[in-house]
Write a structure and sequence with these properties.
By secondary structure, the protein is of the alpha+beta class. The protein has three helices and five strands; from the N terminus they run E-H-E-E-E-E-H-H.
Amino acid sequence: MEYDIKRGWFKNIEGDLLEQMMADVFGNVSKEGDLLVSSYGVLDRIEVKVLAKDKLDIATVNKEGAAASDDAILDSKRRLNEFAEKATGFDAKARMKRAQKKAKEGTL
């Protein structure tokens, strides 16, 4: 999913800073071309790509087949939200409002 990056926030993630941020939050990160890839808990694959100074793409793939506990699911979701907030500068509520606005405008 595409997320907006707060104006002036790009300086916090440019260069190797985004990669370091992923390592801090998820504990692991690797590069695959222009993608940063990680995994955590029930999230088998977390792909992050900077599209522009004001856009970030975060895609996730859940683990197949394994029954996960509610705690593991919640923990994975919290970590993903923590990362998205650190990377974009917007908290979950602000990201949701921006997505709803784009949906109403038909630009999502």
